[in-house]
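Q: Hi! First time doing this. I have a protein sequence and I read that you can turn it into a structure. Is that right? Here it is:
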Amino acid sequence: MIEEKLDELGITLPAPAAPVASYVPAVEANGMLFISGQLPFVDGKVVTGKVGDTRSLEDGKAAAKACAVMLIAQMKAALGGDLERVERIVKLGVFVASTPDFTDQPEAANGASDLMEAVFGVAGKHARAAVSVPVLPRDATVEIDCVVKVRSV
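A: Yes, that's right. Below is the predicted 3D structure, encoded as structure tokens:
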């Protein structure tokens, strides 16, 4: 059970973040759930700063993990509270705000990837892109979007 796994990991899902512009948090279509980019919230505040400048690689990993927690919260909301409908995490798109010389985006993205596998097991293994960007909304350190295969009700 996914909820039990979250408990074992000491993760309490936050309320899913509301959109900050003209989009919806998630769209379910043809057995797939597309989740809009999620920012890293810790204690209700967005983690800000660039990796390689004011943020370390470890900070980037922690921010990616916080994004993954918010992705799971969005999944739960979009699936009517039933995380057991998650059949497979298909793909993560990880955007890391970083300095031009920072090249460890894959390691930073592992903060999210490792959590997805820890929560969903083999179904949490996914394809992924991990790219550097000069700036993200709200000066966030990381933003991640997600595609999920879901079981029908």
